[in-house]
Amino acid sequence: MTEIVAPVENQQTVNLQSLLDQQRQAYLANPSPDREQRVNDLRALARMIRDHQDALVQAVSADYGNRSHHETLFAEIFPALDSIKDTIKRLKKWMKPQRRHIDFTAFPTSSTKVIPQPLGVVGVIVPWNFPINLSFGPLINIFAAGNRAMVKMSENSRNLTALLKRISGDYFPEDKLVFIEEIGGVGIEFSTLKFDHLIFTGSGATGRKVMAAAAANLTPVTLELGGKSPAIVGPDYSTDTAVERVLFWKLFNAGQICTTVDYLLLPEDKVGDFVEKAKKVFKKRYPDIQHTDYTSVIDERSFQRIWQTLDDAVQKGATAIDLTDGQGSRDDVLKKFPAHLLINVSEEMDVMQREIFGPLLPIKTYKNREEVADYINSGDRPLAIYPFTNDKELRDYYIDNVMSGGVSVNNAVLHVGQHDIPFGGVGESGMGHYHGYEGFLTFSKLRPVFYQGPLDPLKLLMPPYGNLADKMMKLMLRLTK
Predict the structure, then answer these.
(1) What angle do CA 431, 298, 316 make, to 5 degrees?
(2) Buried b (16+ CB within 10 A) or exposed e, 121-137
(3) Regarding beta strands 340-343 and 319-322, do their DSSP bridges make them parallel or antiparallel, or are they unpaired?
(4) Helices assigned H by DSSP within 102-171
(5) Mind listing the pLDDT tens digit for each residue in 267-298?
(6) Rounded to the nearest 10 degrees, how much is the dihedral formed by the CA atoms of 84, 89, 90, 91?
(7) pLDDT digits over 343-361, tens only?
(8) What global pTM score does this model have?
(9) Would you please indicate which residues are annotated as catalytic (active-site) residues?
(10) What phi, psi does 7 have (nearest 5°)?
């Protein structure tokens, strides 16, 4: 027989386990912090951001090569600070135990409650595309629920991670919050730790590995994945407005957003107008893609992948329309990818087979709404859909007949930034929710408690069973009618 040798723990594993043990002990010493402590933690998060706002923005830009400072402020700094403010305002109500109905017939004078209590230690795996938002966003819910957190950053966020590791100790002890750098397989080891909950944001392929690793410990997971989220322009909708809004989001962060418009569905007679308007809008917004307003692709591998995706589409018959009038270069040191529209796309092209995560916008045409619904439903369930129409019946048709993680109507992405609605995927685009109250619930145990009252009718049903028990059961069953 082949001897099975247990793997030898390396120092990396030992260090991660030590951090988890430290946080677990701190949790056990104070398993249910009061509202004041949770608010203090949230305010400390806000101070950490405000005190180092410029440095955080600069660190993200350095990791990208160039990231628009306005995009970081709008999509990362502002949402985190605004969410902290909103959470503090609502936290008292969220924490309040809920009284629930009890069957007075069987349990007179007794009562029940549901009490939201902290889970313990939560692991957070953060991607590189919005590393401030996608680390602090979950942390807001995690701390509001009274937990502690270990945050594993991306290998593409070296500068930001170094900054967070350096400053976090000024605001939190390691037994409350710790940031961990991705070096040499830390992500794999991190996923195998016995957390009380694990939240991952990233690709579906990696999400499957994270879930498999967590399953060994029965660790519950929240997976925020991606997919091909479509925008659908209705026959009634202004092409000019659709171009302005779709292009804004498609080019925001150079298209490196899991909820961006991945492809566009247009009525056949709107394609020409859309293309001409897109050229004008792009020229006005980005006359020079080397300007700091236009964000770089995160790394060379991704930069070349997008070029290969474009090449594949053209070779297979797509028409590529370069909105930059030839400004792009495959050797660009700053990795500024020229925005392209792609028309006459087909399903065998890579651009229609996987999430693009770059400034390429494929355009498909359709004849009727049923064709649109059938096409989207034939693939994986997207993280979002974006119907553009002022026709309420058409709008509701898409909401009712096409399942997705979320919906923004007559715009894109904006449902993600609303504090009082949950964010999350469905099917291949993810599972579970966070943001707002649903995020508080995700990182809480809704603990049911039964309080026995002075009267205990169950005494009449205890063995030895006889006539009295028979009569009691007949009465109880009769009362269920």
Answers:
(1) 80
(2) bbbbbbbbbbbbbbbbb
(3) antiparallel
(4) 133-144, 158-167
(5) 999 999 999 999 999 999 999 999 999 999 99
(6) 70
(7) 999 999 999 999 999 999 9
(8) 0.94
(9) 224, 258
(10) -65, 145
